[in-house]
Amino acid sequence: MASISSALVIGGGVAGPVTAAALAKAGIEATVYEAYPEPTEGIGGLLALEPNGVVALETIGAAAGVLEAGTPITRSRMAIGGRTFDLVASPSGLPARQAIERADLHRVLREQAVAVGVRLEHGRRLVSVSEEADGVVAHFDDGSSARGDVLVGADGVRSTVRTLIDPGAPGAGYTGLLGFGGYADVDLDVEPATMTFAFGKRAYYLYWRHGDGRVAWGVNLPSPYLSLTEARRTSPEEWLRTLREVYADDDPGALLAASTSPESLQVVGALHIMPPVPHWHRGRMVLVGDAVHAPSNSTGQGASLAIESGIQLARCLRDLPSVESAFAAYEGLRRTRVEKIAARGAKISHAKAPGPLARRVMPLVLPLVFRAQAVARVAEEEQRYAIDWDAKVA
Ligand SMILES: Cc1cc2nc3c(=O)[nH]c(=O)nc-3n(C[C@H](O)[C@H](O)[C@H](O)COP(=O)(O)OP(=O)(O)OC[C@H]3O[C@@H](n4cnc5c(N)ncnc54)[C@H](O)[C@@H]3O)c2cc1C
């Protein structure tokens, strides 16, 4: 082990509790510090965990909770210009993709982390650090502080730890899309376990049959940048009016928008993407999850990659003799994979926020693009990633 016994984990979203639970499993005492004053559902809405994310969660004993709360998705379709194409089926021998409420995922991860001895502290927003030869002191906005042998930045796409590691680090980019999630109470023929990715005339959306029979759907609306707070200043009623107009000519987009109530519409704000981050670690500080590799949501891999990274970091700290060698090995294990997936996602995001010319030719071009992608089975390769927890990191 890298001669450490304690870790401060900043951020209690997805990566934080997973990393802390994996560290606890590796024999390192971990405490999670979350800025929000109480357990939250994050930004809300729904997300999909890919098979690799579910498999990775088995390592920390959290997969069963996700399978219980999620809706399994085994088939994917693409709908464009009135035509529907089957995409690659779920890889054989792997668990199904799981569509899950973000609040449920947070709850499952939190409960599992606490069950293996992780301490979770809310209302502790990291503002600065003091670095020592053999540790780090985290300072929080309430004036309190905590000391650990290492500090893990799992503080999301707007990471404070990223800039403490490198003040010149790049910030997150905006995909040009705002996210919404909702449930439509509608009698629509939607096959169970099938997720349809639909390119409407003016905006992209996706939908599937939720466990309770309603149709769950997600929206990517081309828009000038709005922060989550700004987007939520507009009422759900008003956003629904916009969505009904945007999807008016789309089938079944129009019906989904018409059958969604303001109460079930969740405004989840701007969709971000992280460019490659030059420095993943410095001294005794290191980054995991969106803080260092937020791919476009089009990849469906953001949360799954965050989970994988947290577990790989814990393995490296368990097996390597120094903090420096552990952080370097962790970056070596992760950087190529996450940057390749991010590059694929960036191309898809462009297609989802097309200009007027691209919109006209999209019905002709996109099927070919996506067909080729399906044939290449890129996504399937990504989903076959598995971590051998017991194998020693060289
Ligand atoms: C609309 C939308 C849809 C998405 N859909 C999918 C999907 O279908 N599949 C998928 O895999 N991914 C999806 N993603 C991406 C996914 O949500 C992220 O990849 C995932 O949440 C990353 O987890 P994280 O823990 O790194 O960051 P986060 O979940 O953002 O958690 C970071 C946490 O750190 C806390 N924090 C921030 N700053 C501080 C501080 N200074 N001190 C203490 N705490 C702090 C925050 O409050 C937050 O709780 C989607 C994202 C969006 C926005």
TrEMBL record:
One of its GO terms (molecular function) is monooxygenase activity. Residues 7-341 form the FAD-binding domain. Keywords: Monooxygenase, Oxidoreductase. It comes from the Bacteria. InterPro entries: FAD-bd (IPR002938), FAD-dep_Monooxygenase_BioMet (IPR050493), FAD/NAD-bd_sf (IPR036188). It holds the Pfam family FAD_binding_3. The keyword Hydrolase does not apply. This is Monooxygenase.
